[in-house]
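User: Modeling request: complex.
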Amino acid sequence: MTVILPLLFLLAAGSGTAVVLIRDPARQIFAIAVNGLVLAILFDALQAPDVALSELAVGSAAVPLLFLVALMAVRNQPPEEKS
Amino acid sequence: MSMLPYAVAAWLFGIGLYGIATSRNFIHLVGCLGICQSATYVLLLGLGYRWGSIAPIFYDHPPGTPAVDPVMQALVLTDIVVGATLTALLLVLTIQAYKRGGSLDPEILRPMRPGGQPDRGASRADDGERTAP
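Assistant: Request completed. Predicted assembly structure:
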């Protein structure tokens, strides 16, 4: 137990760095979902089960779906002028 | 261990700010802002954590058992919900900026052009009449 908590902290820092460094938004969505999952496991290890449940629902499912919908709306709709 | 949550929170906030400053795509920028917010989750939960404590649920523990701080957990719960709402709002604003400006790059949109001229690129939809094709 004394090893897994610093490991989870470092894993959260690494996955957050991955979200920033992946520049393509279509690939960044997967990094956001993985970051939400890692944060949920970290919060559960920090004795906060309700926060972990909320983060699992919001950060790992709802927010990537929002990004997916936004990317789909941008791709399906060409801008109104030629640019 | 006692300094690790603060170090991780500072690192997440710094890397999120770096991503916001260097981003060339508004959708990527909203993702970086989410990383900045996750720094606050880690900071608040790291403040309220105590070693060897239980979760603040006293259903199967006697009262008086050392538990972690439930106030910080309530704050983080509020923070997560506000963060999801903020992400949705910023993505809608991104789609509207793409519809009106024709690009997702913040350098191309009108407030970042030198002088702020409305022409030179003609990537705006609503200034003046356009020449009919």
